[in-house]
Design the sequence.
């Protein structure tokens, strides 16, 4: 079985219960679009169909799609990381930050915040590349940490997925800021109607960006792409499957993890939390690999362990560290950090771009 890095990567193989590759006579990985963990979505109809199975898996009107590659864009990833690091600067400094290291024509547009949750971030755009960026800050204050540890889940308030549950504190952070973000995005879209929207954030910011990406995608009219950095788990298996099904393949959310980073391991699966599938894992040698393990599928045995070997999930929580959470693609996740050019130089020096080569798994 072959997996490749960055390009021609195998897409998540969603196999409904009781269905095996052998039973359909195929030797390659397939993605059963819209069929995962007791929920059936029809991608072509977006999420208009949501069937919940209580005591058995219900397979209904599912298209079978051959495995497709989800691109990992080194430039977008570096920009996401550096912008996320800049979000840790003081709120009043956002408009005075130097952004030319992100892109020569990057322009700060606005900032948003909520006093109750202390969630904040900023919005900018790159006119020459038709990109609009929304950046959420990670945990910074005691109030943020309080939101982080609110382990209980609440209903995600998604019309097409009544069983989708998400982290209570993360949802509050999202709910208290989404109207500000939406208002500013509408203004920018009027001026730059062809621009795509990239949401990003680190740590708690990545989790809130995930919820915002789902909200904007469901509203329609926005071409949303998510690059989450060191994100904790956001919701239950139904929510993870919903995120995997909601976006077109070319805009599948990218979830970047780094080696022994502690945060992607919490909240624990034992509390009912699962990650969405599209993970790009930066290993100890700083090589980024497409991970093909999907928590909501509960892949076990030799196959599960094989897939985990290229993912953050291969580490137990006791093996994780905070240090790896504060370094991504060679870039420290703090306000006072290196420039985009320096980060790219590190990427090349560390041999990360060698990840274009194919890695064979017996």
Sequence:
């Amino acid at each position: 079985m072959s997996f490749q890095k960055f390009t021609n990567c195998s897409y998540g193989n969603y196999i409904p219960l009781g269905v095996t590759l052998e039973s359909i006579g195929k030797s390659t990985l397939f993605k059963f679009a819209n069929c995962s963990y007791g929920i059936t979505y029809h991608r072509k109809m977006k999420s208009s169909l949501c069937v919940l199975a209580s005591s058995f898996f219900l397979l209904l009107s599912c298209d079978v799609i051959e495995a497709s590659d989800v691109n990992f864009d080194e430039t977008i990833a570096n920009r996401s990381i550096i912008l996320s690091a800049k979000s840790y600067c003081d709120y009043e400094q956002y408009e005075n930050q130097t952004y030319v290291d992100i892109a020569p024509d990057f322009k700060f547009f606005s900032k948003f915040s909520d006093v109750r949750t202390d969630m904040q971030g900023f919005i900018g755009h790159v006119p020459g590349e038709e990109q609009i960026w929304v950046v959420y800050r990670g945990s910074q204050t005691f109030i943020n940490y309080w939101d982080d540890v609110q382990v209980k889940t609440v209903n995600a308030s998604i019309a097409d997925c009544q069983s989708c549950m998400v982290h209570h504190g993360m949802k509050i952070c999202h709910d208290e800021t989404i109207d500000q973000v939406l208002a500013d995005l509408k203004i920018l879209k009027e001026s730059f109607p062809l621009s795509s929207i990239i949401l990003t954030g680190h740590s708690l910011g990545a989790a809130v960006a995930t919820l915002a990406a789902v909200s904007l995608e469901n509203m329609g009219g926005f071409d949303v792409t998510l690059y989450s950095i060191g994100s904790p788990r956001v919701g239950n298996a139904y929510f993870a499957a919903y995120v995997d099904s909601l976006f077109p393949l070319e805009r599948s959310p990218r979830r970047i993890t780094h080696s022994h980073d502690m945060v992607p391991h919490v909240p624990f699966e034992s509390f009912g939390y699962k990650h969405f599938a599209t993970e790009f894992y930066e290993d100890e040698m700083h090589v980024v690999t497409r991970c093909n393990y999907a928590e909501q599928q509960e892949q076990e045995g030799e196959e599960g362990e094989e897939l985990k070997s290229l993912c953050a999930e291969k580490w137990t929580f006791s093996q994780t560290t905070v240090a790896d959470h504060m370094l991504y693609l060679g870039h420290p996740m703090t306000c006072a950090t290196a420039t985009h050019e320096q980060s790219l130089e590190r990427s090349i020096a560390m041999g990360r771009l060698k990840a274009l080569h194919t890695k064979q798994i017996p």
In short: Helices lie at 74-86, 142-148, 168-175, 178-191, 204-219, 237-246, 301-308, 340-349. The radius of gyration is 19 Å. Residues 70-360 form a domain with the Rossmann fold fold (CATH 3.40.50.1820). Residues 1-68, 346-362 have pLDDT under 50 and may be disordered.
